[in-house]
């Protein structure tokens, strides 16, 4: 049992199928259809819920009790964080001379794993979180020095994979190992997602575009302009290609 | 000086810029705008011509004489063919156990280079050409046992990179080293291009989708069903992502 709409949901669904278990995924009602289809394609059972972090948690708990299952949090689970850390290991294995890694941040599981792994291998490496301005709980938390949720109301961002909030296990890592949180506007998210489609020919989802937008921002240039080899984790491609392409401006 | 609208044009433009030379590219008037923009982006001079193979050749010759340049044919030039052969070397270096490589065919330069390189390293490897039904000069030539051009009229295919015809240096290689030519319909080209966008998350152009369509065709299954490790060369991403996405059916 988990609540997630993207990579984690698909990973749990696939892992469950491969090991002969049942997977139950709770997804916000407004998650892109393509995400739901992917999870169902891996054989999982999907339950829809209201699009709030509280509703996700409540519905997942209800399902867990109903099916007698085990809950795997999409970002706050220490084993999930450790699994995400293998991204950092692989990245540095392939590009050993990286001096900065930019990772989009939602619940903070991916960046926590990457930060622990990468800074263990190279304490001097910089880890930068990239966050939509409209879902900036990590930036707010960093500034306040304590874990803060979203501003009142639902976060409205095209980067639907980054609407979640930091948790008890990810916040301490973000607080101590993440060098900065860079926030980006909705317009920058779309234009940098398009840049990757057009120039790198990779159909990333907007949540991944957030990382590119941050890496190419003035804020990054000012704070990390000395970093010569910057890696960006393109953290997902869960996107309806027709709908996404429609958001790009006419050539 | 060359006539080409895709990879070759960009390669010549970039090579010329890197070596401080001027590049003059002749392109058919109806080439996708994105291809023209890419070539201009690499600093080349573009001359448009009528969209026939004869007009391309004539205009390139006119430009060559006018600027006193050197003509590099996009597919029939032996050094271009040799360069394309490095694709085969790299592919087999990365996946040594391939027993078949599928390559989209237009002028035949890419498949000629790949066939010579791959069959030198592994004489048992199968090389299969993938061609749009609507531009099937290679299939026709193979069947006739002699080089034949297109059917009368302009080839009408969404795979605009494959409208060219075999030449004096590529036909002998295609005749002797290519095991089969598989033709695919326009509908199959679009649906397999979409498959790559959706599942592999790579924004390929339709000419590259031709290779996937052929590899997943009944014809391939019947003739090469014993091949367990099949490589397909995704030969280009020169595509306007908005226009391409519009061609895909609604989810």
Automatic annotation (TrEMBL), chains A, B:
The keyword Lyase applies. It comes from Phaeomonas parva. InterPro entries: TrpB-like_PALP, TrpB-like_PALP_sf. The keyword Lyase applies. PANTHER family: SERINE / THREONINE RACEMASE FAMILY MEMBER, SERINE RACEMASE. Belongs to the serine/threonine dehydratase family. This is Tryptophan synthase beta chain-like PALP domain-containing protein. One of its GO terms (biological process) is D-serine biosynthetic process. It comes from the Eukaryota. Keywords: Lyase, Pyridoxal phosphate. Pfam families: PALP (PF00291). Residues 1-236 form the Tryptophan synthase beta chain-like PALP domain. Its cofactor is pyridoxal 5'-phosphate. SUPFAM superfamilies: Tryptophan synthase beta subunit-like PLP-dependent enzymes (SSF53686). One of its GO terms (molecular function) is pyridoxal phosphate binding.
């Amino acid at each position: 049992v988990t609540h997630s709409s993207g990579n984690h949901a698909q990973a749990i669904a696939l892992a469950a199928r491969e090991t002969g278990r049942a997977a139950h995924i709770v997804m916000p009602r407004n998650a892109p259809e393509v995400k739901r289809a992917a999870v169902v394609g891996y054989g999982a059972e999907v339950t829809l819920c209201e699009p709030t972090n509280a509703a996700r948690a409540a519905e997942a708990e209800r399902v867990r009790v109903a099916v007698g299952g085990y809950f795997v949090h999409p970002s706050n689970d220490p084993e999930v964080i450790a699994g995400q850390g293998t991204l950092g290991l692989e990245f540095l294995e392939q590009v050993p001379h990286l001096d900065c890694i930019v990772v989009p941040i939602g619940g903070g599981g991916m960046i926590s794993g990457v930060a622990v792994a990468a800074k263990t291998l190279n304490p001097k490496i910089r880890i930068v979180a990239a966050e939509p301005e409209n879902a900036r709980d990590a930036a707010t938390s960093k500034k306040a020095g304590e874990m803060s949720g979203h501003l009142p109301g639902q976060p409205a961002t095209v980067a639907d994979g980054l609407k979640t909030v930091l948790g008890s296990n990810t916040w301490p890592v973000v607080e101590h190992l993440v060098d900065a949180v860079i926030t980006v506007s909705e317009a920058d998210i779309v234009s940098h997602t398009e840049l990757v489609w057009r120039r790198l020919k990779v159909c990333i989802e907007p949540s991944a575009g957030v990382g590119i937008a941050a890496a190419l921002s003035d804020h990054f240039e000012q704070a990390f302009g000395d970093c010569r080899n910057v890696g960006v984790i393109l953290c997902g491609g869960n996107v309806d290609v027709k709908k996404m392409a429609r958001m790009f401006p006419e050539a």
